Amino acid sequence: MKTRAQVLTAFKKPLEERAFDLAPLKDGEVLVKVLAAGVCGSDLHMASGEDPRTPLPIILGHEGVGEIAEIKGTKADADGRPLRPGQKVLWNRGVVCGRCFFCTHGEEHLCPQRFVYGIHRSTAVAPHVNGCYAEYLPLDARTDILALDDFPAEHLATLVTASCSGATAAHAFDHFPPREGETVVVQGVGPLGCFMVALARDCGAGKIVAVDVAEARLALARRFGATHLVNAGKGSPADRAALVKDLTDGRGADAVYEAVGKAAVVREGLGLVRPGGRYITAGFGQPGGTMGWDPFADLVRPDLKYVGVWVSHTRHMRRALDLIRRRLDDFAAMVTHVLPLAEANRALDLMRRGEAMKVVLQPHPQTPARAKERKSP
Ligand SMILES: [Zn+2]
Ligand SMILES: [Zn+2]
Q1: Among 122, 214, 227, residue whose Cα is nearest residue 184
Q2: What is the H or E stretch that residue 330 is in?
Q3: How many Å lie between the centroid of ligand 1 and the Cα of residue 191?
Q4: Mean pLDDT, residues 86-93
Q5: pTM of the full predicted structure?
Q6: Looking at the chain, which runs of residues are DSSP E strands?
């Protein structure tokens, strides 16, 4: 059996379509027919060579939803129920060893052996098809898989966001969930930031301030629960700081969540937090510059809680999925474009030009999913 895939062979060059032989599965491995592959902002950084982890040639794509085509032996889902062919599934993009210090101390996202589909393994590494920009993807036996039995078929493309941005946002809210009535700022409301807005709403936050340079993203953030929208392209950092102070009797926000991945944004965001408040940065999938700071003035004297968030666990993906389940139509609006796999380069271009909120590739366009294309996110 063969599968076609879109392969990054050189940085800053278009992906190339290649065919791969699918090797026979090993015990516990699951072959999924990829029904939807999310195009993530990280994919753009990888394609341009900004992510130092990228091995070439590589099949990109770490956000996937699929249908089980074949299972070798037996494999249970993350709830311990046996999986069977034909089931629709979502899986944790990261695979860990399960036995190291981190895995056995509840910090499996830091497992030194962790690998992510579409990020860490080139096509030189068996089973050679290691990313979601493919018709079929063999899943390692250690992969945590969630069955999607009760999701409507037309919403499967929507669920790709749970495996990356949704799970990372849930991880950020694990550290510091806002308390009821608190004022929250979310810097950057792409998919990650919109999940943060939705989670803040879920936690009962009072005022939720969304900051972004794109009006369409701000409009979507309002749909998820943002109460105040700030176009960062129009005012200065001082204007934004004044607005947040205005909204909080001069104190500053109780919690600020960062979802951009640029040092300058962090530098600004630290100044938006009230004394004793929290700053949670989760937007960095790769290096995003450096900044100057004064440990006394920026951290100690304001008694700031400053936390970095790296990727996620299976339980975070579960929480994101639960959130999507309750707000299916809102999250469906996050997916602005659904394109066939062969148009992967166009998908990357749409993201690069900022014309899409979330693009989903469909390797098997005949399967039911919402084909759509809108002018703007
Ligand atoms: Zn991602
Ligand atoms: Zn481990």
Answers
A1: 227
A2: helix 328-334
A3: 10
A4: 97
A5: 0.95
A6: 2-8, 16-21, 30-39, 58-59, 63-71, 88-91, 94-95, 115-116, 136-139, 145-147, 184-187, 208-212, 228-231, 253-258, 273-281, 305-308, 337-340, 359-362
What is the rounded CA–CA span in Å between residue 228 and residue 243? Answer: 10
- Ligand closest to the CA atom of residue 64: 1
Ligand number nearest to the C-alpha of 161:
1
Dihedral angle sign, alpha carbons of residues 305, 309, 314, 318 = positive
Ligand 2 midpoint to CA 117 (Å): 16
Q: How many C-beta atoms surround the C-beta of residue 216 within 10 A?
A: 18
Return d(Cα 211, Cα 347) in angstroms, integer.
25
3-class state of residue 340 by DSSP: strand
Ligand nearest to the CA of 168: 1
* Amino acid of residue 296: F
Question: How many angstroms separate the CA atoms of 72 and 24, rounded?
Answer: 9
d(CA 327, CA 153): 16
**Between the CA atoms of 179, 180, 185 and 187, what dihedral angle is there, to the nearest 10 degrees?**
70
Please, what is the Cα angle at 261 between 255 and 267, to 5 degrees?
A: 60
The Å distance, Cα 143 to ligand 2 centre, comes to: 13
Tens digit of each residue's pLDDT (9 = 90 or more) over 164-223: 999 999 999 998 999 999 999 999 999 999 999 999 999 999 999 999 999 999 999 999
* Residue 171 Cα to chain centre, angstroms: 11
Amino acid residing at 110? L
Q: Quote the CA–CA distance of 279 and 93 in Å, as a whole number.
A: 26
* Helix/strand/coil (H/E/C) assignment for every residue in 276-302: EEEEEECCCCCCCCCCCCCHHHHHHCC
Measure 295 CA to ligand 1 centroid, in angstroms: 31
Q: Which position has the token pair 């936690």? A: 203
